[in-house]
Specification:
two-stranded antiparallel ribbon; alpha/beta; binds zinc ion; Rossmann fold; 8 helices; 5-stranded parallel beta sheet
Length: about 240
C-alpha cells in the first residue's frame, strides 16, 4: 500500500472510473475532483455520484479509502473556448486534424486546479485518464505534456507532485481488461451500466459496452474497445 494520498480527476466516464479503481487499489486515501465548465451535457457529471456509491458499496476496502468528492465550477473555460463540447455544433475534424471537441489547455487547467486543491488537502498524487494510444490527437493528453506538467507543478508549489496516468499506453480493450483485473466482473458491470462517455449525451438502451448513441466518436471508440476485449478473451 502506497501511503501517499491521491486525487483522481474523475468525470464519471469509463477511463476516469478505471483510474479511480486503480487509485483505490493502491493509495491509502483517495479523493475525487470533477470540473463543470459548461459541457453541453451534464449527464457525465451526474454519473459521478452513482459510480462512487456503487464502487464504495461493492468494494468495502475501497469504500473505506474513498474520501470526499469535489466539483469545481470553471465556466470561464466554456466562455473562452469555442468547441463542439461547449456549444451546439457538429463534431468534426478541424483543418489542423484535431477534432473540434478539443478544448485548448483543458487538461493543463484541470491539473493546475487539482494541484491547488491537493496541496491544501495534503495529497501529492494526481491521477488522470490521459492516454496516448487511442486518443484523438489531443496534445494535452500526451505523456511528454504530463511529464512537463508534473515538473511545473512540483517546481511551482515546492512539493513533490506526481501525475499518474495508468491508461497512458493502453488501448481501450486493455482499459477494459485493467478494470476486470482490478475489480472483476463487478467493476466491469459498474463501468458498463453507470459510466458515461457519449459525446451527444445520450443514455438510451444498454448495449454490451454501455449506454450511448453508438455512433459518435466516443461511443465508437468505447464499443470497438469492448468488442476487441471480448474477442481477445475468447481466444
Ligand atoms: Zn455517442
Amino acid at each position: 500500500m502506497d501511503t501517499r494520498q491521491a486525487l483522481v480527476l474523475f468525470s464519471g466516464g469509463q477511463d476516469s472510473t478505471t483510474c479511480l479503481a486503480w487509485a483505490l487499489d493502491r493509495f491509502s486515501r483517495v479523493e475525487t475532483v470533477g470540473f463543470d465548465y459548461g459541457q453541453r451535457h451534464r449527464i457525465e457529471l451526474d454519473c459521478r455520484a452513482t459510480v462512487r456509491e456503487r464502487i464504495a458499496a461493492a468494494f468495502p476496502a475501497w469504500g473505506e479509502r474513498l474520501g470526499d468528492d469535489h466539483l469545481l465550477e470553471i465556466d470561464v473555460l466554456g466562455r473562452i473556448s469555442d468547441t463542439a463540447l461547449t456549444r451546439d455544433a457538429e463534431i468534426a475534424l478541424q483543418a489542423d486534424g484535431l477534432p473540434n471537441t478539443f478544448v485548448p489547455g483543458r487538461n493543463l487547467l484541470f491539473l493546475t486546479l487539482a494541484a491547488a486543491l491537493a496541496y491544501r488537502r495534503g495529497m501529492s498524487v494526481l491521477v488522470g485518464g490521459m492516454c496516448e494510444t487511442d486518443y484523438s490527437g489531443y496534445p494535452d493528453c500526451r505523456d511528454n505534456t504530463m511529464k512537463a506538467m508534473q515538473q511545473a507543478l512540483t517546481l511551482g508549489t515546492d512539493r513533490p507532485f506526481e501525475i499518474a496516468t495508468p491508461l497512458m499506453w493502453l488501448d481501450k480493450a486493455a482499459t477494459w481488461e485493467l478494470a476486470r483485473r482490478l475489480g472483476g466482473d463487478t467493476l466491469v458491470d459498474v463501468i458498463r451500466q453507470d459510466t458515461h462517455t457519449c459525446y451527444l449525451g445520450e443514455r438510451g438502451a444498454l448495449h454490451a459496452w454501455g449506454h450511448g448513441c453508438g455512433h459518435c466518436p466516443a461511443c465508437e471508440l468505447r464499443a470497438r474497445g469492448y468488442e476487441a476485449w471480448m474477442t481477445g478473451k475468447q481466444r
